[in-house]
Amino acid sequence: MDEDDTLPDATPDRDYDTMAELPAGMAPAERPKVPSTLPPRGACDTHVHMLGGRGDFRLWDGRPEDPPRDRGFDGWIDLLNTHLTTLEIDRVVLVHSVLYGTDNTVTIEALKRLGDRARGVGLIGDDATEAHLDRLADARIKAIRLNHVHPGVISWEGVKRFAPALAERDMHVEILVNAHEHLASMADDLRALPCPVVLDHLAWPILGGEGSPEGVETLERLVGDGDAYTKISGIYRFSDAPWDEADDLVARLARANPDRLLWGSDWPHILLGETPMPDAGQLLDAFFRAVEDSETRQKILVDTPEQLFGFR
Hints:
Blueprint: E1 44-48, H1 73-87, E2 91-95, H2 105-114, E3 118-122, H3 130-138, E4 141-147, H4 156-168, E5 172-176, H5 179-192, E6 197-199, H6 214-224, E7 229-232, H7 247-256, E8 261-263, H8 280-290, H9 294-309
Parallel strand pairs: 1-2, 2-3, 3-4, 4-5, 5-6, 6-7, 7-8
């Protein structure tokens, strides 16, 4: 048997309807608001998640919630296309959701549907093989993700072990951390990794002086020195609408090193808890408010994702 055949892998025609249910997340609006400023041609939303309907794909036993139950996989594809069309975004990066654990099928199937305008970020476990990485790379998955906020999949030690193999495949690692809890202790190891590092959601900082400034200072050094990228994404998770509390941090990072910044909507905004559902058009407007220079916007929205994710 080929080694790839032993990898756990769901398929869309299998029925997982008998799995135990958890409370379902909220669904986003059918269409975001049109942003007041439109992005440049070739812009990329580097952080969205693809979901399926009830029974479409195998869910992870350790997931924090279930996907919204109002549509199936085809409906989510349609909703994503509406999201991209309304924002006039030409490219997209699908970040595999922790709801599905290490079974990347929902993301791989979506990449097939979306074609060359899409790239992916996958999840693997500590027990993955290089053959598994090859299979992900062949599916246009350009990174693996470590989730320190919702742990239980790959470990930090696993990421460090796989980093050379990722570098060999022109892949990188994306990491979701809480800056004030994790970043300072990880910084030296992050700098030493042989592959690029992307910190999601601005490293999920505590703003407004409520937490230790050490995490934000570490983020600014990593980005400023070119040792890490960060995504201007998920700002609604640590700031209240209209999310202007994050403007100063975003502007400082853009001045320090615009070549290490990316933008993402974090659509369809899963795992909200008590946070109100944001609107992606307004999130894009918040980015334009914080980053006023057109050349810097071009780098963040077009040039850097094109280079990092291998868009042509």
